[in-house]
């Protein structure tokens, strides 16, 4: 049985954020102004209730700038990319490749060639598992993941290991929801071919010590893939400073469109990897005898891509950069600390995941009330939270839970919304108590 | 044995819910119904009786007694349990053929239709399907 402290200190900011914050202490962050940028936040649900959207870890809402960019693209710029000599094809290609360059800059990649468009984090992980994994992982080899991974960063490796007769090793966590670093280090060995871990946990909000993990892995020449889906909307990510080998994230969790995501990879790794899918755009020449492949990043982008998605993601990056991720991180840290304090005050509420470094996520159990019941009542009160296992069933098993209620924050959430959640939870506890 | 038709039982429930003019009252009543549902013995809360693929765990048993299907069901979530209580009340002790024909439109009339949606992950739509599977099996067994 785990022991959970009822009241805990507010989580401290992740290291990477702290460094940048020192220079940005005076930044005024006007959350009400930010909210004006998001049309959906102004709608009401059910009997005219204002929407309190606290399910951002599942998907974030879209600012006007992203919606308008996609609209403008389809109205004025759309055609297929990389093909036609005609004007519109060139406009579309410029928009598509321009967004790639923006995204590369945003994550600190040295070259847009290192940035591959995918459908999302899941496809990015699958791409690496299928291409890099199949080429480098053999019978008896090991892939290291952690207990707190999202199913998207478990199943592709499990499939690879099954196919190759390799072994999946899992880094344990402590009761606060932090990775056991020593166990991780001891796990790294001759047979370890890859480490794949979450930068930030989607279910607990834990910010993992990825810089130190990458260093430890690199000392043994083991490449590291980071699942950054829950990091990119909350912290400044610099793939060069991290020195990660692969970094995966989704557009829709960072205020961009659905159906678009990114795989960043070090150039020499991507260059050496075989293609993932075959088809148009990824080829150089095709004969029935033999096909030669296109150069990076197009080698990994078979078929007509999600151009509007890429362009929309570019607009989301622009939006985030204009707000400044330092200011965003500061605002969210304040909000998470406030929410942690307020929820701890509710009799019977148990926080799940009390890591020292957290971002964006507050998972909890409302006493003996089933998360599904709590979620249903909160929903009727206009509050959107996620309930259940959050696509982390092995983590829930480790914690001895069938699920939690998860409130996850974004740059547009307010203290008033936290108060609404707290009031809603009081109602829930009263109804089911 | 309660021999009212499914339609009559549905109407009773619709009348009961009409007493509440807001959703909170309905949910309070639903939770109360859930609390009063006869429990499934723990011995039957096993994988064999569990309806899979839902956030809320749901267990269902059925037996044929004197030509009528008798259901017993349970859930670890109270709202789900309340809805189960309604479904059991409507469908239990009915002939298998009547269960198979039931549309359960009362859930729509009492404003709780969305809970039957297969995307809801509360196990209810899967439970209704399973209730009908039992009824189908019993009606075929009776014919053979």
Give a quick summary of the entry.
The complex is a heterodimer of chains A (about 425) and B (about 140). Chain A is built from 15 helices and 17 strands. In chain A, the strands form five sheets. Chain A has a seven-stranded mixed sheet with strand order 4-10-9-8-7-5-6, sandwiched between helices. Chain A has a four-stranded antiparallel sheet with strand order 13-14-17-16, covered by helices on one side. Chain A has a two-stranded antiparallel sheet with strand order 1-2.
Key phrases:
heterodimer; A: 433 residues; alpha/beta; seven-stranded mixed sheet; 15 helices; 17 strands; 16% strand; disordered N terminus; B: 144 residues; alpha+beta; three-stranded antiparallel sheet; 6 helices; globular
What does this structure look like?
The complex is a heterodimer of chains A (433) and B (144). Chain A contains 15 helices and 17 strands. Chain A is of the alpha/beta class and 433 residues long. In chain A, a hairpin with an 8-residue loop joins β13 (349-352) and β14. In chain A, α3 packs antiparallel against α11 (307-323). Chain A is globular, with a radius of gyration of 22 Å. The two termini of chain A are 24 Å apart. Chain B is of the alpha+beta class and 144 residues long. A three-stranded antiparallel sheet of chain B has the order 1-2-3. The model of chain B has no long low-confidence stretch (mean pLDDT 88). Chains A and B meet through α13 of A and α2 and α3 of B.
């Amino acid at each position: 049985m785990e022991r959970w402290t009822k009241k805990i200190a507010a989580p401290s900011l992740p290291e990477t954020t702290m460094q940048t914050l020192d220079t940005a202490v005076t930044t005024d962050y006007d959350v009400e102004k930010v909210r004006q940028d998001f049309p959906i936040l102004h709608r009401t649900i059910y009997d005219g209730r204002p929407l309190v959207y606290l399910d951002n870890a599942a998907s974030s809402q879209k600012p006007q700038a992203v919606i308008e960019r996609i609209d403008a693209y389809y109205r004025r710029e759309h055609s297929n990319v990389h093909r036609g000599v005609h004007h519109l094809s060139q406009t579309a290609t410029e928009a598509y490749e321009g967004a790639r360059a923006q995204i590369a800059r945003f994550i600190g990649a040295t070259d847009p060639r290192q940035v591959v468009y995918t459908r999302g984090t899941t496809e990015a992980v699958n791409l690496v598992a299928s291409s890099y994994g199949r080429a480098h992982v053999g019978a008896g080899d090991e892939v290291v993941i952690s207990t707190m991974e999202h199913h998207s960063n478990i199943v592709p490796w499990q499939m690879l290991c099954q196919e190759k007769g390799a072994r999946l090793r899992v880094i344990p966590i402590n009761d606060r929801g932090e990775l056991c670093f020593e166990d991780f280090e001891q796990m790294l060995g001759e047979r370890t071919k890859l480490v794949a871990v979450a930068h930030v946990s989607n279910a607990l909000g834990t910010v993992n010590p990825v810089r130190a993990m990458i260093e430890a892995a690199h000392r043994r020449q083991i490449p590291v893939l980071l699942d950054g889906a829950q990091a990119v909307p909350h912290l400044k990510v610099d793939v060069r400073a991290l020195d990660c080998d692969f970094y995966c994230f989704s557009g829709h969790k960072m205020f961009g469109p659905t159906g678009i995501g990114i795989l960043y990879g070090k150039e020499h790794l991507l260059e050496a990897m075989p293609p993932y899918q075959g088809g148009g755009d990824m080829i150089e020449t095709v004969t029935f005898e033999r096909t030669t492949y296109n150069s990076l990043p197009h080698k990994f982008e078979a078929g007509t891509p999600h151009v509007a998605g890429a362009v929309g993601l570019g607009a989301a990056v622009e939006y985030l950069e204009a707000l400044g991720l330092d200011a965003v991180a500061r605002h969210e840290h304040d909000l998470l600390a406030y929410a942690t304090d307020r929820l701890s005050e509710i009799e019977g509420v148990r926080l799940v995941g009390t890591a020292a470094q957290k971002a964006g996520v507050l998972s909890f159990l409302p006493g003996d009330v089933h998360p599904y019941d709590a979620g249903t009542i909160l929903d009727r009160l206009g509050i959107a939270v996620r309930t259940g296992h959050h696509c982390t069933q092995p983590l829930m098993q480790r914690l001895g839970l069938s699920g939690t209620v998860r409130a996850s924050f974004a740059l547009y959430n307010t203290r008033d919304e936290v108060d609404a959640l707290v009031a809603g939870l009081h109602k829930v506890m009263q109804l089911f108590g | 044995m309660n021999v009212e038709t499914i339609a009559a039982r549905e109407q009773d429930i619709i009348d009961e819910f009409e007493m509440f003019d807001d959703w909170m009252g309905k949910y309070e009543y639903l939770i109360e119904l859930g609390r009063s549902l006869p429990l499934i013995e723990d011995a039957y809360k096993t994988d064999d009786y569990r309806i899979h693929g839902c956030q809320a765990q749901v267990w269902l048993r059925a037996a044929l007694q004197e030509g009528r299907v008798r259901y017993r069901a349970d859930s670890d979530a109270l709202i789900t349990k309340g809805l189960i209580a309604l479904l059991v009340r409507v469908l239990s002790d009915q002939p298998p053929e009547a269960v198979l024909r039931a549309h359960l439109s009362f859930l729509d009339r009492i404003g709780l239709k969305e809970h039957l949606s297969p995307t809801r992950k509360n196990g209810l739509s899967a439970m209704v399907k399973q209730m009908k599977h039992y009824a189908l099996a019993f009606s075929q067994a009776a014919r053979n």
